[in-house]
């Protein structure tokens, strides 16, 4: 999908919309709490990935206010409400360990490179 708002003769930007979910652990959440629910959380994410709803996901590892259980998930959803409904089903959320915020996110620039060896079945990306 190429952005329809590009000026003639100007560089075309991707202009693809996603929903960025920023998850934040509650102040009372411990590392042990996260470890206890992590397997269920990962299974939930892998199901969403298989259903084509997860574009990217992973924990935040540093930054202001980041602690165990903080993360970002980028969803393919039709609306902010649908993205929030998906995020609300996260086992970390349903168990009361974290909250979330949903942001509309338009991807315009960037590059993803994937290498796949058919002989070994190995891949690289970056």
Describe, in plain words, how this protein is organized in 3D.
The protein is α+β, with helices and mostly antiparallel strands and 126 residues long. It has 3 helices and 6 strands, in the order βαββααβββ. The chain has a 4-stranded antiparallel β-sheet. Strands 5-6 form a two-stranded antiparallel sheet. A hairpin with a 6-residue loop joins strand 5 and strand 6. The radius of gyration is 17 Å and the shape is globular. The two termini are 22 Å apart. The mean pLDDT is 91.
SSE layout and pairing:
Elements: E1 16-25, H1 31-50, E2 54-59, E3 71-75, H2 80-88, H3 91-94, E4 98-107, E5 114-116, E6 123-125
Antiparallel strand pairs: 1-3, 1-4, 2-3, 5-6
Instruction: Give the averaged pLDDT, no decimals.
Output: 91
Query: Which architecture does the CATH hierarchy give at level 2?
Result: 2-Layer Sandwich
One letter per element, helices H and strands E, the order comes to EHEEHHEEE
* Radius of gyration, in angstroms, nearest whole number: 17 Å
Q: Give me the count of strands.
A: 6
CATH superfamily: Dimeric alpha+beta barrel
**Helix/sheet category:** alpha+beta
**CATH topology, anyone?**
Alpha-Beta Plaits
For this structure, what is the CATH class? Alpha Beta
Apparent shape: globular
Strand sequence of the main sheet, in spatial order?
Answer: 2-3-1-4
Number of helices: 3
Biggest beta-sheet profile: 4 strands, antiparallel
Low-confidence sequence ranges: none
Beta-strand content estimate: 25-35%
User: CA-to-CA gap between the ends?
Assistant: 22 Å
Number of domains: 1
